[in-house]
Amino acid sequence: MLCFSEIILENILQRRSVRNFTGEMVEHSLLMTLLRAAMAAPSARNRQPWTFVAITDRSTMDSLAKGLPFTKMLYKAGAAIVVCGDSTINLQDGATDLWYQDAAAASQNILLAAHALGLGAVWSALFPYEDRSGHVRQIIGLPGHINPFSIIPVGYPTGEDLPKDKFRPERIHWERW
Amino acid sequence: MLCFSEIILENILQRRSVRNFTGEMVEHSLLMTLLRAAMAAPSARNRQPWTFVAITDRSTMDSLAKGLPFTKMLYKAGAAIVVCGDSTINLQDGATDLWYQDAAAASQNILLAAHALGLGAVWSALFPYEDRSGHVRQIIGLPGHINPFSIIPVGYPTGEDLPKDKFRPERIHWERW
User: Would you say the pTM of this structure is higher than 0.90?
Assistant: First the structure.
């Protein structure tokens, strides 16, 4: 019997980027769970500068795929989440902008929650690429103050994507370099 | 009885930034588990551009705290992990550098794994701040090609830091903005 901590650590270690989906749609209630996980991420000064567009419409996902050279898996995904930063929140106190770090933490939470639910997901970068961001902005109608950070295709895995062991002890230094 | 997915989601939702530690040391074996979780994060093109310095030495943590205005919790932490990017890996194929997004995903995995183990942790930004990065670089002897991204004090929580419900349904847009 696995204890709670082992179950959670296994989820972190076994999660992999899933690029091969069955094409089955993903229910709204599951997407809500992913979004709840996203918003549980930490953010600099707890500013929570994020906002999300959840997409299940087939033709929107196809249009997004068309202009995103590295995100063709959208054609078979059951949903997609665009993680964005709201620059009116980012800059509200004039602090240096860490919104993209907060959006990255939220993106990672989505991937882990998807894996926990038996879904697959893959983080595809939009920021800082103007061409990719501009395409997404146009298709889903993002206003100027909303900056797309990542697009995460979500779906039911075909089983082709396998976990990798990426542990490299030589990347750990103890006490100092 | 909670099912596996509920246990994992609860860990994501209940995790909070822990700034109040008992002062008890954190064992090497637990830090290894955190670092294993960190390296299970996804990275752009699977380049895994990260490297880590794990610190348990009291006087090193005190020296770090001295020069980091927002990371005074190091004085009571049981350990600290500095998440870094190795610019010789980042730039190896001349691609635009996404190392800080990869380092952010690794940082989030550390926070979640710490919570799973009954530890507390808090993500403190070093990048893109020259002053904070420079201080850390000097104390732990980072060479020029290693760029500090975050410092994560880790320790046993006093219990003062409580989870926050940060779910905001108004931050979710369906299908398009």
Answer: yes
